[in-house]
Write a structure and sequence with these properties.
Elements: E1 2-7, H1 18-25, E2 41-47, H2 55-58, H3 60-68, E3 71-76, H4 78-83, H5 87-96, E4 100-103
Parallel strand pairs: 1-2, 1-3, 3-4
Amino acid sequence: MNIAIMVCKKMTFECSGTWCFKAFNEREKAFEIYKDNSKVNLCSFFHCNGCGSDLDKELEYKVTQLNKMEVDTVHMSRCIEVECNRYNEIKDFLIKNNFKVVEGTH
């Protein structure tokens, strides 16, 4: 199983992603669902292209790359929910592009 973490672009200037990776590595918080599955690969840590972006246009290449890596699940980090007024739009976009969405990371 291949998964990815999506974070808020605004937060990439402040956040190192450390706690998302810690939670994944220790299979805690939102990653607890994988605690009995050692075959989960974290294949991508990416962000949207900003608040004013056209999701279909701006994320097309990223979706292509995720598909090439056979990512089937995207964890939407808490920072997107806190910082972005497009949370549901982004979630719907990911679902429309055949990804399972898990809300949260740590």
